[in-house]
Amino acid sequence: MVSPSKTDIVLYTSGTPNGQKASITLEELGVHYQVKNIEISKNVQKEEWFLKINPNGRIPAIVDKTPTADGKAREKRIFESGALMLYLCQKYDDNHSLNYAYDTDEYWEVVEWLVWMQSGLGPMQGQANHFYRYAPEKIEYGIKRYQTETKRLYQILEDRLAEQAAKPAGKDGPWIVGDRMTIADIANFSWVNWAEWAGIDIKPFKLLNQWLDKINERPAVKRGLDVPEPFTMKEKLKSKEGEEEYAKHHSQWVMKGQEADQKKHG
């Protein structure tokens, strides 16, 4: 296995929950990488050069140019954050610091919770974000529908952490799987950490709130959150002016991207 400090990886990303999954994973693994800031406010992710890396026109993605162990040149693209996280662990986590050995029960539990997040929590909270923050007209049904579903999914995480807390938790547990923080925790954390942006109060979820605070204190997580630029959402929400400024900036590029897609595919 190539040493993480000798890797040649480019991360194409932006400061979103999905982008933060990738940068936190890279930081936790101590993998050497470069960052390319994809300005989604300018629709850079839909430019032809980027579509060759990710045909879906979304961040994050990586291009791994690290030579093979026997010195052969290679260039591997990986898009979709879940696939990216599994790839990085398979290639550069020989000590299983963020996952478990392949085909163990714990390995497949990590995959289960990673896919659960990708197919449930991320899309549902993303829709809550849209209707609560970005939609040009406030549709109460849409807001309640997706906030309620997000809370239901938070309760599943809360129940899982309670189940784990009843077992030997390892260092600083409970964690979603086993006795350590894994990419399952990182993936779910990256969305739960944006709860207030979706208009959701996390305080009623006691264990989830403790788990969130615990992960936020990790030095590698703090570094990963600030890729490719400082993570300011929580600070902005401390004032009405900051909240309105942050919402206006982000709603503009969200709606601009939607209008471009409607024009092309509508």
What does this structure look like?
It is a single chain. The protein has 266 residues and is α+β, with helices and mostly antiparallel strands. It has helices at 17-29, 48-51, 81-92, 105-134, 140-165, 183-192, 206-216, 219-225, 233-236, 240-265, and strands spanning 9-13, 33-37, 61-64, 76-79. It is built from ten helices and four strands. The chain has a four-stranded mixed β-sheet, with helices on one face. Helix 1 (17-29) links the parallel strand 1 and strand 2 (33-37). Helix 1 packs antiparallel against helix 6, helix 4 (105-134) runs antiparallel to helix 5 (140-165) and helix 5 (140-165) crosses helix 7 (206-216). It is globular, with a radius of gyration of 19 Å.
Give the helix/strand layout.
Layout (H helix, E strand, L loop, with lengths): L8 E5 L3 H13 L3 E5 L10 H4 L9 E4 L11 E4 L1 H12 L12 H30 L5 H26 L17 H10 L13 H11 L2 H7 L7 H4 L3 H26 L1
Parallel strand pairs: 1-2
Antiparallel strand pairs: 1-3, 3-4
Helix pairs in contact: 1-3, 1-6, 1-8, 4-5, 4-6, 5-7
Keywords summarizing the entry:
266 residues, alpha+beta, 4-stranded mixed sheet, 54% helix
How is the largest sheet built, in terms of strand order? 2-1-3-4
Number of strands: 4
Number of helices: 10
Radius of gyration, taken over Cα atoms and rounded to an integer in Å: 19 Å
Quick one: overall form? Answer: globular
Secondary structure class reads alpha+beta
Average predicted confidence as pLDDT: 94
The share of residues in helices is: 40-55%
Strand content: 5-15%
Low-confidence stretches: none
End-to-end CA span: 47 Å
What kind of sheet is the major sheet? 4 strands, mixed
Oligomer: single chain
Topology order in helix (H) and strand (E) letters = EHEHEEHHHHHHHH
